[in-house]
């Protein structure tokens, strides 16, 4: 069973002497640090509810695995995969004894409505435009919305001068069929 690396966390975060001040200080509970581990960036921290958090993201990837650990035992409480900051796939919750207590399929709601998932749209973008939106430097934003009773995936890709793409573009697709609808230059307003 996976456990939280409390020694590494304390070594990098716990430099203050007064434990009382640290647990009362709201900022302490949200403090995090990151380090590189081979091809990944690992972030360790502690949430305001006391759970320790470990995020593991491969370099230049939109995917990250998130693990939460119980404060008193450092045992695994939760694990789940995220695409940017959107939960995807099956997430699991565990008791302090390591027993699986809950599984949640974050793609089930989309699948039940016949909507393509983010992972499905990765393949659509690769096939239709040779763009790998699994890479963080390629994808800026991906969102699903309803327009005129039709679900639309909007995928905004970053400008990439190495590929002679001078502008960010917003691609729109029918979210149920993957049919390409439009491609327009995208600029941030504001």
Give an overview in words.
With 190 residues, the chain is an alpha+beta fold. The protein folds into two domains: 101 residues; 77 residues, Nuclear Transport Factor 2, Chain: A (Roll), CATH 3.10.450.40. It has a seven-stranded antiparallel sheet with strand order 1-2-3-4-5-6-7. A four-stranded antiparallel sheet has the order 8-9-10-11, covered by helices on one side. A hairpin with a 2-residue loop joins strand 1 and strand 2. The longest helix is centred in the middle third of the chain and has 12 residues. The chain starts with 5 loop residues before the first helix and ends with a strand. About 7% of the residues have low confidence.
Number of domains: 2
Taking strands numbered 1, 2, ... along the chain, how are they ordered across the largest sheet? 1-2-3-4-5-6-7
Helix content: 10-25%
Number of strands: 11
Task: Return residue spans where pLDDT drops below 50 for at least 5 consecutive residues.
Answer: 16-29
Largest sheet: 7 strands, antiparallel
Proportion of residues in extended strands: 35-45%
- Using the alpha-carbon principal axes, give the shape: globular
Radius of gyration: 20 Å
How far is the N terminus from the C terminus? 47 Å
How are the SSEs ordered, and which strands pair?
Layout: H1 6-13, H2 19-24, H3 26-30, E1 32-37, E2 40-46, E3 52-58, E4 63-69, E5 76-83, E6 86-94, E7 100-105, H4 108-112, H5 118-129, E8 139-147, E9 150-157, E10 168-174, E11 180-186
Antiparallel strand pairs: 1-2, 2-3, 3-4, 4-5, 5-6, 6-7, 8-9, 9-10, 10-11
């Amino acid at each position: 069973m996976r456990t939280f690396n409390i020694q590494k966390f304390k070594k990098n975060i716990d430099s203050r002497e007064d434990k009382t001040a640290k647990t009362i200080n709201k900022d302490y509970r949200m403090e995090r640090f990151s380090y590189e581990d081979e091809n990944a960036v690992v972030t360790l921290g502690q949430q305001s509810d006391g759970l320790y958090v470990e995020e593991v993201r491969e370099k230049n990837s939109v995917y990250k695995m998130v693990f939460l650990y119980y404060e008193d035992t450092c045992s695994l409480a939760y694990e789940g995969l995220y695409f940017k900051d959107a939960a995807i796939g099956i997430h699991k919750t565990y008791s302090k004894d390591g027993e699986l207590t809950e599984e949640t399929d974050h793609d089930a709601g989309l699948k039940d409505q016949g909507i393509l998932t983010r992972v499905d749209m990765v393949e659509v973008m690769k096939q239709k435009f040779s763009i790998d939106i699994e890479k963080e430097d390629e994808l800026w934003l991906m969102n699903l919305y309803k327009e005129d009773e039709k679900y639309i995936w909007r995928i905004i890709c970053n400008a990439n001068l190495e590929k002679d793409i001078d502008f960010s573009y917003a691609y729109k697709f029918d979210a149920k069929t993957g049919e390409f609808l439009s491609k327009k230059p995208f600029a941030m307003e504001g």
